[in-house]
Each structure stands twice: as C-alpha cells, then as structure tokens.
Amino acid sequence: MTNIAILKERETQIYHKGIQTFDMTCETKSLAGSISQRACVFCGSRVVLYPVADALHLIHGPVGCAAYTWDIRGSLSSGPELHRESFSTDLQEKDIIFGGEKKLYKALIQLINRYKPNAAFVYVTCIIGIIGDDVNAVCKKVSEEKNIPVLPVHSEGFKGTKKDGYKAACNALAKLIGTGPVGDISSCSLNIMGEFNIAGEAWTIKKYYEKMGIEVVSIFTGDSRVKNIKRSHGALLNVVQCSGSMMHLAKIMKEKYGIPFIRVSYFGIHDMSKALYDVAAHFQDKSQQIMKNAQKIVKDEINAIYPAIRQYKKALMGKKAAIYVGGAFKAFSLIRALKSLGMEVVLAGSQTGNEDDYKILKEMCNVGTVILDDANPLELSKYCIEKSVDIFVGGVKERPIAYKLGIGFCDHNHERKISLAGYSGMLNFAKEVYSSVKSPVWQFLPGKNILQNGNSIFGKL
Amino acid sequence: MIMKLNVQEKTEYTATRNACKLCSPLGACFVFRGIKKSMPLLHGSQGCSTYIRRYLISHFNEPVDIASSNFTEETAVFGGAANLFLAIDNIIKQYEPEFIGIATTCLSETIGDDVPLILRKYSNKCTKSPVIVSVSTPSYSETHIKGFHDSVKAVVSAVARRDITDADHINIFPGMLSPADFRHIKEIFTDFKADYIMLPDYSETLDGPCWSHYQKIPDGGTSIKDIENMGSSLASIEFGKILAEDKSAGKLLEEQFKIPCYSLGIPIGINETDAFFAALKDITQKPVPKKYIKERARLIDAYADGHKYVFEKRAVVYGEEDLVVGLCSFLTEIGVIPVVCASGGKSGNLRKKLVEILPHSQLADIKIIEGADFIEIGKQAKEMDPDFLIGNSKGYKIARELKKPLIRAGFPIHDRLGGARILHVGYKGAQQLFDAVSNTIIASAQDSSNVGYMYM
C-alpha cells in the first residue's frame, strides 16, 4: 500500500474489479487541480487532422498551441510534408484588443501563396471567440479568392474535452467529403478510418487490404491527401479503428452517403486477424476470393512471427502490466495482446472511455484489476506500486512515472517511432516490452531491488 | 473620447512559421518547479498544462506535474474564481505543497480574471496553508523567458523580507539554465565558502534520482524560508544582459531593500565567467579558489591546442536572447564568427548587446534577427553558409537540410538524452562547449575527407 490519497470527487472514476459493484462515472470534464493526463479540445482536433500531408494547418491564436504541436506525431507521409510545419498567427496583445481577423487573412493568403496547399485547416484556439473574430467569414473569403477549401476547425480548448475536438475535426473533414469524383472506384472498396500512419502503420494495413483485393480509397487521416478525402464517399465500407476519434465521421458518412461501418483494431494477432476476416465477410457476396486471400494473409503472417513471439512469451510469462491510453478501444486490444504474451493486466485506464467501453474492460480484466477513467499521475503511481507492475504501456507523460519507480515502459502513443500495428507490429510490440522488462539496468534501482541484493555500501538510497 | 493608439507595424505582418519561442506560462512552470515543495497551477484550459508538461517531460525525462484550473464554457463566461479555488483545494489535498505558483494564460487574461483579487477571497480550512503567489503570464505577450523572469520577480516581491540585519548570503538569479548549470553555480559558491540563495533551483526537482519511495513532489528547490531571506542579502547576482535592461527581481530588491544588484551576462566562456568570479570576489572579499584558477588555466591551454580548428569558422546561433548573447561571447573569444544570431524574443536590445561583444570588423557580415522563427533562420543560414549550428534541438530540421552539424545547447533538447546535463556555464562549461565545437569541426573534416586520417 501507499499513502497516496485519492480525491473524493475522483473515487467514482476508479473501479476495483471484484471488490466493488460496477458503477463508474466517465465522460465528465476533468476535475480542476487533479492533474489530468488529458489535453484539450484543440488537441483532439489537431491529432486527428495533423496527418493530412498536403493541407495547410494554421493555428489561429497566441504562439503556444502551435509551438507545442510542431512535428508532434510520428505520422509519415509518402509525399508532401506540409503537415510537419507549424504555422501560427502568433497573436499579440494589440490583436487581443483590436481583433485578429486581419492577421488571419494575411497569414492565410501568404501561406497559401507560398506553399500551394490543396486545402487549409484553421484551428480556432481559446481566445478567438472571446475577442470576437469571425473565423468562418475569413475562411470563406480566402476560399473564394484562392479557390481551395479553407475550413475552420472550432477547437477552442475549454469548450469540452479532447473528444469534442475529434468531433470538430470530423466536421471539417465532412465538408471535404463528397466534393471529388468517384466514377472509377471499385465495388470492393473501403476507407481506413482512425489510422494515423504512425511509423508507417497505415501502409502495413493498406497493403493487407490490397492483397485481399480491396481498393483503399482514403485513409483517415494517415498519409492522406485532400484529393482522396474528397472522393472517399465513393467507398463501400468504412473500417473504423480508434473509435473515439472517428466514429462521428463514420456516422455522418452513413447518414449522408449510406456507407456502413465496422469497428476494428489492428493491434495484436487476434484483433488484426479479426479485422481482416470481418472486412472479408462484408464483401463475401461480391467476391469469395477476398476471404481466401484474407485466410492466406493471416496464415502466412502468423507463421512468420510466431516462433519469435513464442520466445518472447517464454521470457515474459507472468509479468504484470499497466496500461493507460487515450481511447478505451485500444485498451481492449492491448489487454488481449499482453495476454497472448503470457502477461496479466493489473491496471487499465483511459482518458476518454465511455460507459460501454468500461463495461467491456471490466469483463476482460481479472479480479483485482484497477480500472481508471481520466486518471492523474498520483493515481497511476499509487496503483503501479500497489500492484507491483512490471511494465507500463502508455504515452510520453506516463514514461517518467514508470522509470522513476523502476518499471519498464512501452510507448503506445502517437509520438512513437516504432510500428506496432499489424503482425510485424505485434512482433515489434513484444520486442519493445521485452527490451524494457528484461533490461539489466533495473538491478541498480533503489528500493526493492537493492534490498534484495543485500546491503548497499551507500546506506539507505 | 477616442484614444488614438500609436501602434505601428515596423514591417509587413507574416505568420510565424516554426516558432523559435514558446509561450510565457511555460517559463512560469520552470520557476515554480524550482521552489521547494511547490506545485505550479495554470489558470486556463486543461491543454495548456498538459502541453507544457509534455514539452518539459520530453526534455527532462522527469515527471512534471502541473495543475490546471480546467476552464469550461461556463468558466469562460462567469469567470474562473470557483475553478481556481477548487484547483487549489484539490492540489492541497493531494500534494500537500508548501507553495503554489499560479500563472495565468491567454484565456484567463482575455476574459479579465484578476487573479490577485480572486486570491484575496480565497481561504481554506487547512491548518497548514501553502504560500500562494500568482503571476500574470498572458501567452500573447512576449515569450517564455518573460514568463520566467516575471515569475521570479513575482515570487521575490511576494515573499522576500528584510528581517536579518547582519546577513552575509548572496542572492543568485541564474535565469533559465540547465540543472547541470545550476549545480555548477552552486558548487562555485560553495567553493568560495559563500552562503547563497538561488532562485529558482530546479537542479534536483527536474534532474533527480530514481525513487526508493514515492515522491508526490520531488525533493529539492529553493525553500520559502530562503526566499524570505532574499530580502536581507548582501548582494544579488543576476545573469542576463538583456534582462539587465528590464525591471528584474534583482533590481526590485535593490530598490526595496538597497541590496546591490550585479547584472552580469550568462557566464559562458572565459570573459563572462571572469566577470562572474570578479563579482564574487568583490562581494565576498575572498580570493578565487585555486580549483578555478587551475580550471581556467587548463581551459586556456585547451583553447591554445584547438584554436586553429575553430578560427573564423561560421556559426548559426539561436535561442533565448540572453543565451544567444552568452554563446556569442564564447564563440567570439575563440575566433568563431556567429554569422547568424537569432532569437524569437523581441526585447529590442539584442542587437545593442551583441554589438558590445562582436568584433566590429565582422559586424557587417553578421545577421542579427530579432523576433525570428525557424523558417527565417533557415533562410538566413542557407545564405550565410555556416560550418555548424548551435542551439536547441528545434534547429535540427535546418541542420539536416544544410547537411551541417548541430551542437545542442539550451532548451529544449527533444531529440537526444541528457538535455538537463548540458553544462554551459563556468570554465568547466566553456571547456565542454569548446571541446564540442572543435571536435564537431574536426569530425566534419575527417568524415568528408577521402583519406580518413587517424590523426588530426
């Protein structure tokens, strides 16, 4: 046990399986002073739209929001890299008094002239509405003058949570969709949604679908181009990963264009294979071959990685894992993937899970597991210590917590440089976990290890 | 009556592309992390604290907890007082801090929250209340370095008192340096046998050991008692020639308590370190410890050994204005020409301070850019054909494009380990910088040679 106290207001967002009845609060705003690991509405929009590589991303506001998100994701592009630049209107004190519309207009014209993007996204940050800028009007004007779509993204940081930012981004994308030609799209075609091409993951997934005989019209939004997004309504299926960020758009497309969607995950052998089979099943009426191709891919890919996975499993058997991720859907995959490596998840949490997500999480976890919604560093630390965790799977903000406590860490967030999706990604994941858990450096850590090794010459460390 | 404001754009407005600056609340977080048992609290949206946390964590590889008052739409309409109170209460319950530093953001400033006024209405039922200090850091006003210095000043102004009359300690306001720099500065004071109070001091809080037991707030930092005593000091030393033009914490103490303030440049290189040691000698009336005389002598010996390799080599220097001034002082004394000197800051004093340092014969060939962004720096760098770049890791894109080496210094270092361990100051810091500069140049020559000599 630790002496770390939990705030009373936070208690309903923490669930101990097997100890209390399930009644979890979630989808609420973060508690002031709690040090949430969440970011803001702007962050939600920025992460979803960021990988659109041939669009201009202009952040309207003071410089911080743009500076902190410069080249922030590991989303790769096979062509233009305009998304990796950071553009800000960099509002100053006098703009707060007189308004920032003129600067926004000038910045857009100048940047569009210079970089010739195929569309522009204008991210509206906290103070823009308060100072009264009419961003929609400026965007409309520039769009007419420059003849490209200029889309306002209403992502004022305080107007909700990261999830509302996802929605704002989806709404902006929805305005692009339906404006391109669809005549030459195959009858076996899909959009990959909620895949951001971190370390080339979307390319791996796209290759699987193409091998099956399915045309990928657009990826939302990994390595995507404005042109493909515009014609994505011509696809016959939307395959949605990372449900939190893209479900809103999938629903819009279903309503507007009648495109059905299925939810998948590409992490872990089980979920990856299920994704391919589910997609193949969807097209079964049109082509028997697609299912056969899927079966072959699954068989070949599993055969290729299985011997190595078995070795890792041997080494990792019985280790305890903690996971803390943005969307809960990823947590399900991670639990299965870690189980397949012989590991047990003893702490599972997410920033933005909903009630259904947490019900599923509860079913998946063993008795004794702690489930957390919108956790803070103190809670994460408390349960890592109390549950004697061996590896933490999370993002950069959780990494130093793990290392300080002598716990291994695997980055599963959008900044990572290693592909974890697909079968090759599962092998990478196993290797990542193994490299951290099995490192000899932990022997030198103060606390439990040094005491096990006998007395230290340095006294109490 | 309509007031006619005399606001003029000097040049045509351009968007900021790849900013060479950060927003002011980030600077405040540095300072508040450098106070003992302290929690920083940003009064604004959740994103501000989370983004700044991530930015600092990626540099320091340390847990950096920063609280937020977490504005909602209602907060933006009705004001942030209730949220601020709730945040303070929750921080106290969870972290039991001795100090809470509140910094505003663009949002709370724009809706007109008057934090000092709000705080006057705050009271809690706890027996041990932390000291609470607030600072105004609107993100649309100047840069992170302004947020840093304003926070130091706000803390001193709120906490420092004069209640000891025969004190012989010295205040040191080092500015936004690395934990390694802070440790070295403290070592110098200790070796001088001079009592000192350094503010801030994040040498431990942002560069600490692994834990044997859980630490809600990492050990280290300047204590409140020490900050109180800053009002009774013998003298203040403050680094930063650009800062010297401002109403700084040191100046405030000089004005309020007649404590003489020594405004020095950041002690990078021999000349500026000499000035630092001269000030210490002057204040303490003690001789320079032998250790440093030897360190300095070895450094000069190294300068002699390496001078030819670096002579008239061309450097692109960028970062906070005071860091640029400090690095230029060092580069100039070893014969390197800083052909591009750039900062995102716009104090209006960068040129003036650089002109005092740079050789006048070279001035015509040197580009000094105030209010620069990295696209502008890249453009100038390309024209000036440098041998290397020196600055934070955000210049890597330019270095890669130009195929020139980047020597990492300052903040942030996001693409290498050990940003916290980079030593810039003192003779020891100059030694490390000199080795880095000369070996970078030697390596470039070796790597690009057809022969591949194994001697220099």
Characterise the protein shown here:
The complex is a heterodimer of chains A (461) and B (456). With 461 residues, chain A is α/β, with parallel strands linked by helices. Chain A has helices at residues 41-49, 64-67, 93-98, 101-115, 126-131, 135-146, 162-176, 201-212, 226-230, 243-257, 269-282, 288-316, 328-340, 355-364, 377-386, 399-404, 422-437, 448-452; strands at residues 14-16, 55-60, 87-88, 119-124, 150-154, 189-195, 215-221, 237-240, 261-263, 320-325, 344-350, 370-373, 391-394, 408-411. Chain A has 3 domains: 8-25 and 317-417, 3-Layer(aba) Sandwich (Rossmann fold); 41-166, Rossmann fold, CATH 3.40.50; 189-301, Rossmann fold (3-Layer(aba) Sandwich), CATH 3.40.50. Chain A contains 18 helices and 14 strands. In chain A, strands 1-12-11-10-13-14 form a 6-stranded mixed sheet, sandwiched between helices. The two termini of chain A are 20 Å apart. Residues 449-454 of chain A have low confidence and may be disordered. Chain B has 456 residues and is α/β, with parallel strands linked by helices. Chain B contains 17 helices and 14 strands. Chain B has helices spanning 24-33, 46-60, 73-78, 81-95, 106-110, 115-120, 144-159, 179-191, 224-229, 249-257, 269-284, 290-310, 321-333, 350-357, 374-384, 396-402, 426-448; strands at 16-17, 38-43, 67-68, 99-104, 131-135, 170-173, 196-198, 235-239, 261-264, 314-318, 337-342, 367-369, 388-391, 406-408. In chain B, helix 1 crosses helix 7 and helix 12 packs parallel to helix 17 (426-448). Chain B is globular, with a radius of gyration of 23 Å. At the A-B interface, helix 1, helix 2, strand 3, helix 3 and helix 4 of A face strand 1, helix 2, strand 3, helix 3 and helix 4 of B.
